[in-house]
Amino acid sequence: MLAPAAEALGVRFAVLAETADSPAAQVIHDVVVGDYTDFATLKAFAETVDVLTFDHEHVPPEHLEALVAAGHAVRPGPQALIFAQDKILMRRRMDELGLPNPRWAEITSTADAEAFAAEVGYPFIAKTPRGGYDGKGVRVITDSAEVADWLSDVPVLLAEEKVDFTRELAVMVGRSPMGQTAVWPVVETWQQDGVCKEAIAPAPGLPEEKARAITEAVLTVAGALDVTGVMAMEMFETPEGFLINEFAMRPHNTGHWTQDGSVTSQFEQHLRAVLDLPLGSPEAREDVSVMVNILGAEHEDLYRPYLHVMAHDPAVKVHLYGKGVRPGRKVGHVNAYGSDRELVLARARHAADFIAGVDPNPHPEMPAPAGVPATAPARSGAADPDERA
């Protein structure tokens, strides 16, 4: 999804892909297939480009440090990226900055777990400091024996209090090497089985003072960590305020709505930032924008229902990733925008779930958004593109 933004900016874009059929390799001309954990492969690739950036946090930090030492432009730099790679280091740094953390502890033994439970009570949350995502590497701990079992495989864990939150929020910021910043509206997110399912921008009913505090916090983090590129900050909202959950220093699922719902998408902004170009406006195009993920189910054919969705609601934007379908796997997302939040959300949910094959009401008759001609709904059960309206 960075590739179209690069093309629009007139930037040559290359990718180091793990496999020849990876999503990026399917749409980008300049592809090198190789192992990003192998330093020689990584260095050889870095020598073909002016700036190196990432779509995940799993590149070994020692490799990135060696590339910087060799004179390569790595953005974000390893000194910033480490706080997205290592959750314990992130918690320590947030405490140093005086930003709102949940109560936490570093756990290396059952005694540590029992001491933390004495402070916050059971259940609490345990996480692997590195490598976890989409709910992986996270467990709810109800007894210290569960920690002992996990510590036999992992030498250290991050323990966090189980936050009694009202909802989850996220915010995206872009920052360039010259220090220019741009922040998108705070969004509300909803997780399904540990995977982000929906994002609503702006977060409904968020008080202005709380939105301002969140914006100030993400700007503080971006500046203090010397972030280059875009960064997502995920949070728990509580009656007292908010608590930081984690960071991603790259384009992120909670910012996918910006592809179609803001003046400058997170993908274009990331490229502008890492290339030290002037940043674009993060202003929303409409009153409400939503993103709903398409999560794999039992239905493997995404293309035919995708055609139906295009015909049924031509104003929604469907983005498929070219991934094989597995239950719960993110295989695409749907963006929609407008002035009526409930209608916009209903349209995006229908489209995403219909493509996945889990929509119990596949053909709701919903009014077309303003300015878009209404289309007749497809006949019940008509997933075949030849039978669509």
Using the coordinates above, name the CATH class of the largest domain. Alpha Beta
**Within the CATH hierarchy, at the fold level, what is the topology of the largest domain?**
D-amino Acid Aminotransferase, Chain A, domain 1
Largest sheet: 9 strands, antiparallel
The mean pLDDT is: 91
Total domains: 3
Helix share of residues?
25-40%
Number of strands: 17
How far apart, in Å, are the first and last alpha carbons? 30 Å
Rg over C-alpha atoms, rounded to the nearest angstrom: 22 Å
Architecture of the largest domain, according to CATH? 2-Layer Sandwich
* Secondary-structure element series: HEEHEHEHHEHEEHEEEEEHEEHHEHEEH
Outline the low-pLDDT stretches.
362-389
Strand content: 15-25%
In CATH, the homologous superfamily of the largest domain goes by the name ATP-grasp fold, B domain
Task: Summarize this structure as a short list of keywords or feature phrases.
single chain, alpha+beta, Rossmann fold, Dna Ligase, domain 1, D-amino Acid Aminotransferase, Chain A, domain 1, 4-stranded antiparallel beta sheet, 12 helices, 17 strands, globular, PurT/PurK_preATP-grasp, PurK_C, ATP binding, 5-(carboxyamino)imidazole ribonucleotide synthase activity, ligase
Write the layout of secondary structure elements.
Blueprint: H1 2-9, E1 14-17, E2 30-33, H2 39-46, E3 51-52, H3 61-69, E4 73-74, H4 78-85, H5 87-97, E5 104-107, H6 110-120, E6 124-127, E7 138-141, H7 144-151, E8 157-161, E9 167-175, E10 181-183, E11 187-192, E12 195-201, H8 208-224, E13 229-238, E14 241-248, H9 258-261, H10 266-274, E15 288-295, H11 303-312, E16 317-320, E17 330-338, H12 341-356
Parallel strand pairs: 1-2, 3-4
Antiparallel strand pairs: 5-8, 6-7, 6-8, 9-10, 9-11, 9-13, 11-12, 12-15, 13-14, 15-17, 16-17
